[in-house]
Design a protein that fits this description.
The structure is a homodimer of 277-residue chains. Chain A is α+β, with helices and mostly antiparallel strands. Chain A folds into two domains: 127 residues, MutM-like, N-terminal (N-terminal domain of MutM-like DNA repair proteins), CATH 3.20.190.10; 123 residues, Helicase, Ruva Protein, domain 3. In chain A, 25% of the residues lie in helices and 19% in strands. Chain A contains six helices and ten strands. In chain A, strands 1-6-7-5 form a four-stranded antiparallel β-sheet, with helices on one face. The first copy, chain A, has a four-stranded antiparallel β-sheet with strand order 2-3-4-8, covered by helices on one side. A two-stranded antiparallel sheet of chain A has the order 9-10. In chain A, strand 2 and strand 3 form a beta hairpin. In chain A, helix 1 crosses helix 6 and helix 5 crosses helix 6. Chain A is globular, with a radius of gyration of 20 Å. The two termini of chain A are 27 Å apart. The chains hardly touch. The structure holds a DNA duplex (14 and 14 nucleotides).
Chain lengths: 277, 277
DNA sequence: TAATCTAACAACGA
DNA sequence: CTCGTTGTTAGATT
């Protein structure tokens, strides 16, 4: 479940290693994760130079030369290993997709569950990566811009935060504490949020994701060299603490269902004026 | 609530009267029913020739010359008067939209509730009239084509029949008896329908709409000269007969809610194996 | 632990 | 009786 901090860490590593390289090989042990046949994929992307590798929400984007906007877009789904072994190192065993460059690098990807390697032509305006909202840590996303994103929305705040078309990069793992630090219940309807709560959410997003990013991402994920992140869920105040005291007020954390995802909340810090717990 | 039979009757009358005419005037007492300002509308459509007037589902389409696919699209919403008074006749009083032609004809439209007069450029691929399914009485819509439309659909059959993007021209008024004649409960899920039931629905659509069309449409609607149709709801076997015996089997007709629309059914003819009445 | 896309459906607005 | 948008849920994805 790599989210923005992990994706940024991985993409930065890939950019360091691959920017300027030319793709020379693609091997696929699981064709369903592509959006074309392996043969089509090779026609589309091989012999092309990787201009840059950049993170975008939960996606890793390789920009290709020759045609503006052409991308290789990687989504790690609900968890994946993505490795770039050093020259002296043994390549991993059970890859699902392997990408080689003429310069001798190899990217090995093993999806745990539901991941994709897509080719996105520059003129494809409908691919999910074209519909992403602003990155949750985008420099330009100040509190006013964030308030603007919420404008006119009527649904629950957690569904909004997880909707990649609204704001990109937040998944369930970090959502718990983003909401808890702001003292906002996940089921609060957006129009009921006060300016202070909106500012609190904006600050929480930057704090929670920023702290993890500074530590190289969550400790259950690894960078492209296999090194784990140093952000531990121990630092959460409610996330994955069901049945234990809230890190802020001591009230016992409870797990509720919010839409399709489970969510841990502190009933003390995150009251729901409207109705249920 | 004009549906396919009434729309075909009206469109045929307008085509007889206006095909070849050139639009010369547009007056609007209710600008909200346009998809542009009255001034824009005039720029778009005046001085242009009406090539043909054709029915399409519940829409009346004026094809304009000069640019292929350019249309004036009229939707009568939940009921409207649309009149083309004879030369000697007094024009109606309370129009909402009035359209004149250089040749001296005038079309007067009074929307009762939620109707539209839209300009649809030929390159607009997203306007509702571009997304319509095949006309319910389309010559080419044989039983195999109809079965093809149902393929892959999982929802209730009535929601399908009323969805203009699937099949165009059926509204709630005729839907009751289309379902009843085929002995199909409105909430039946499409994948549970047998081949015989699909064939029955196909036949019912043609019978019910065809009978009304042959009679000039429903008797509560009028043609462009103000003459009422001759199709009476008295001939329905279940539609608008709540509390009275089904015209086929004598079981008392009941009104149920099916999704967002009310629907009369015969519990005898239209059992629902799955669950509720 | 965790993601995204589609279809169907309800609620609301116009 | 209309049509459209939004939000919500359920199902599927290999």
């Amino acid at each position: 479940m790599p989210e923005l901090p992990e994706i940024r860490t991985i993409a930065a590593g890939l950019d360091d290693a691959l920017a300027g390289h030319t793709l020379s090989g693609l091997e696929v042990a699981r064709p369903q994760c592509l959006n074309g046949t392996p043969g089509e994929m090779r026609d589309w992307i091989l012999a092309r130079r990787v201009v840059r590798v950049k993170p975008r929400g939960k996606w890793i984007l390789f920009s290709l030369d020759d045609i503006a906007g052409d991308l290789v877009a990687i989504n790690l789904g609900m968890g994946a290993e993505i490795r770039l072994p050093g020259a002296a190192e043994e390549p991993p065993d059970h890859y699902r997709v392997r990408l080689h460059t003429r310069e001798g690098s190899g990217v090995f990807i093993r999806f745990w569950w539901l991941g994709h390697v897509h080719y996105v032509p520059g003129d494809d305006e409908t691919h999910p990566v074209r519909l992403l909202g602003p990155d949750a840590l985008d420099e330009g996303l100040d509190v006013d811009a964030f308030r603007g994103l919420l404008e006119g929305r009527r649904g629950g705040i957690k569904a909004f935060l997880l909707d990649q078309r609204r704001i990109a990069g937040i998944g369930n793992f970090y959502a718990h504490d983003i909401l808890a630090r702001a003292g906002v219940h996940p089921l609060r309807k957006i129009p009921t949020l006060g300016d202070d709560e909106i500012a609190g959410l904006h600050r929480s997003i930057r704090e929670v994701l920023g702290e993890s990013l500074d530590l190289g991402g969550a400790d259950y994920e690894r960078d492209i060299f296999g090194r784990p992140g140093r952000f531990s869920r121990e630092s959460f105040i409610v996330g994955y603490r069901e049945g234990t005291p809230c890190g802020l007020c001591g009230t016992t954390v409870v797990r509720i269902r919010t839409g399709s995802t489970p969510g841990d909340i502190c009933p003390g810090c995150q009251p729901l004026p409207e109705d249920r717990t």
